[in-house]
Amino acid sequence: MEVKGSSIAMIIVDVDLFKRVNDCYGHLAGDYVLQKFAECLGTMVRPYDFIGRYGGEEFAICLPGTDIEQATVVAERMRENVAALEVEYMNYRIRVTGSFGVTVYDQESPEDVDILIERADSAMYVAKSHKNTVYQCVS
């Protein structure tokens, strides 16, 4: 499938208060929650999009050919689906939320692509200060 457009949107999402999951239910439960969180995100992307673990409890999502408005809509849908997710682990039902940072990179821009990641990460930290929200950062 050909991807049209010269922009790439980037979403970085952090699982809110994840340390509490590990502290309350153990690290195996935390790992399981991360797997289910990633699966939930994966249901919201196209076949040519990319989702990868960015570190700890953070994930990076690349959306080729997507502008900032479209990426924000995707992030908001992801946020809603994650908030509705109930992970069953042993006899526990674990719920988490996510903080989403969204930005876009124009491939014709003279900026380095690392700036894209930096902006998405900064937006995610703003969202994280509120929890369970989406924040966009435009260049």
From TrEMBL:
Keywords: Coiled coil. SUPFAM superfamilies: Nucleotide cyclase. NCBIfam families: GGDEF. This is Diguanylate cyclase (GGDEF) domain-containing protein. It comes from Desulfitobacterium dichloroeliminans (strain LMG P-21439 / DCA1). Residues 6-139 form the GGDEF domain. Residues 68-95 form a coiled coil. It comes from the Bacteria. It holds the Pfam family GGDEF. GO terms for molecular function: diguanylate cyclase activity.
